[in-house]
Amino acid sequence: MAKRENAGEIGDPRQGGGTLRFRPRIGFLISILIGLLWFGTIEFVVSADLLWGDWEQELVSYQRWSYVVIAAVCTGLMLLGVRREQLEKSELVREAEARERTLFDFNPDPALRLDADGVIQAANAAAIVMFGEEGDGLHGRTFVQTVVPDERAGVVSHIRDTLMGHPHHFRVTMSVGGGHIYAGIAATPLFQGARVTGVNLIVEDETEWIEQRRALARNERRYRSLFDNSLDAKVLLDGQSHVLEANPQACQLFGMDEDELKRFTREELLDMDDPDTAAATRYRDEHGRFFGEVRIRHRDGHAIPVEVSSVIADAEEDGTDGYVIVVLRDIRERHAAELELRRSREELRALSGQLLAIREEEQTRIARELHDDLGQTLTALMIDLDRLTGYDLGPRADALLEGMRGLVEDMVANIRRIARDLRPPILDDIGLAAAVQWLAEQHQERMSYRVHVHMDREEYRVPGKVATAAFRIVQEALTNAARHAGAGNVWVTIAQGGDGLGLEICDDGHGFSSHEGTSGGRRPLGMLGMRERAVQLDGELRVNSTPGEGTCIVVRLPVPDGEEPQ
Predict the structure, then answer these.
(1) Going by DSSP bridges, is the β-strand pair 243-246/289-297 parallel, antiparallel, or unpaired?
(2) Which of 90, 241, 324, 493 has a CB 3.0–4.6 Å from the CB of 504, allowing a cystine?
(3) CB atoms near residue 468 (< 10 Å)
(4) Band of the pLDDT at 23, cuts 50, 70, 90?
């Protein structure tokens, strides 16, 4: 800064100075004006005859000498002005060189100075640090030697153009410190007068920038590959929900090309008449993301169910959405498959219900036939045997008749038991409560555990199919407790409340874990049968079991209104 101020004092025109530069010229002009005024005055006095005698002669002589004096003064002032200008120019040149040297040495970017042959003559501190060599190691080398061989011809061409007075900016790959860097070079010509004597190079290490650009390009290629080749439809929206990009699957899903899609907003592409879709858009706006099912509009107007995942990918600093990535999956085929599966399950359930009803009817018929036909036949046989005992057939025949009569009695008892197991008459004649109590007594007599029955009323007025299902579930649960649980006690609880009948059958057996409830990947048929009976009536069945703590089966059977109770 001090040099600039000194430059202004000696007449640097860029600093607004100019005192010494212009003062000799002004003195020269003033001298000429004074001389002309002096000459003019003398000529006026002489021509007007204002003086006489010796005065006139002396004045003319003085005039002649004045010419010499004024000419000398003017010449001296002119020479002084020229000298002053030379000194000022020399000072300005020195200042310019000093400034250029300062800029060169203290430039934060590496700087090199080349001569007309491209040989490095100077290198600043940043260049020495970048090349990892001392300054003497760079001096005398050509700049082209620092460039990888494949790019040297292009560098030579750029330097030649710069030596012709044309600045250049180019990029090269340089060999530095045993490795390579990508550098941006700013080449400017160095002038001495009107002649170019060398080249000044500013080197900017762009390796990190180049690597970032390459990484960005790789990421962009990966993004484009994932975006365009995804099996799902993908749409990119801006903060105002306008379409920015759409992959081919999205174009196919909406029946439009990408340019057409870009003319629509999110609301125009969704079926906003669908309440679930409208609710989904509100949820996404409030929470910033959404995953679920919505309906979109095809180009021809029909609605398409899709599974959508919408998330804000980049939010602005003010909190507004940057852009939103929306992934859409056409679920029409899945809906059709789910509908077909639901229909198949309903058909299987209906078939299962029909089979259960047929089985109950068949068991009732078999029980009735056993009781009415075979039971009556055996009863008649017993009567005939009793009649034979009235005859004197001898001891041996009496013994045979007594044996036959015992066998027939056992057969009658077994037939009655089988008939009761198939369809206990008490269920139809008296009701569910009495049937469950009878069933508990039967199992307690035949099995090794005690059965505790708790019911909240003496009788349950429920439809026949509900009573049958409840009875069969209790029967199967008691059988399972005997076969698999090793229980010492079983508790049966029945309660009716609201619009349903509740059952709970618990035991103190060894229980089982969830993975032990299956055998060979299949559930036990008894458990499946109980669950199926509950499902047939739109009920539910839960099994709670822990190893060593027993098992508890909880059933809820709805009781429909309007059906005739049992």
Answers:
(1) unpaired
(2) 493
(3) 23
(4) low
Residues 6+ apart with CB under 8 A from 98: 3
The CATH-assigned architecture of domain 230-323 is: 2-Layer Sandwich (3.30)
Please state, in angstroms and rounded to a whole number, the distance separating the CA atoms of residues 306 and 291.
11
> The tokens 């007449």 sit on which residue?
11
pLDDT surpasses 70 at 104: yes
What's the 3-state SS for 192-251?
A: ECCEEEEEEEEEEECHHHHHHHHHHHHHHHHHHHHHHHCCCEEEEEECCCEEEEECHHHH
Helix/strand/coil percentages in the chain, nearest 5 = 55, 25, 20
Domains 107-211 and 427-558 share a fold: no
The structure's pTM equals 0.48
- Write the CB contacts of 347 (distance below 8 Å, at least 6 apart in sequence): none
Identify any residues that bridge with 126 across adjacent strands, giving them in sequence order: none
DSSP tally for the chain: helices H, then strands E: 18, 15
CATH code of 107-211, in short, is 3.30.450.20
* 427-558 classified as CATH 3.40.50.10330: no
174: number of Cβ within 10 Å: 22
pLDDT tens figures, 396-426 = 777 887 788 788 777 877 777 776 666 667 7
Higher pLDDT, 13 or 195: 195
Highest mean pLDDT among 62-66, 184-188, 308-312, 346-350: 184-188
Helix axes 395-422, 332-369, angle to 10 degrees: 150
User: 6-9: which pairs have CB atoms within 8 A and are 24 or more residues apart?
Assistant: 6/91, 7/91, 7/92, 7/95
The domain ranges of the chain are 2-103, 107-211, 230-323, 331-423, 427-558
Distance CA 553, CA 546 (A): 12
Q: For residue 405, which phi and psi values (nearest 5 degrees)? A: -65, -40
Residue whose token pair is 């993908």: 234
* Element containing residue 476 per DSSP (H, E): helix 464-480
Backbone angle region of 394, left / alpha / beta, with phi > 0 → left and psi within -120 to 50 → alpha: left
Q: What is the mean pLDDT of the chain?
A: 78
Instruction: Find all residues with CB under 8 Å of 540, minimum gap 6, and list them.
Output: 534, 555, 556
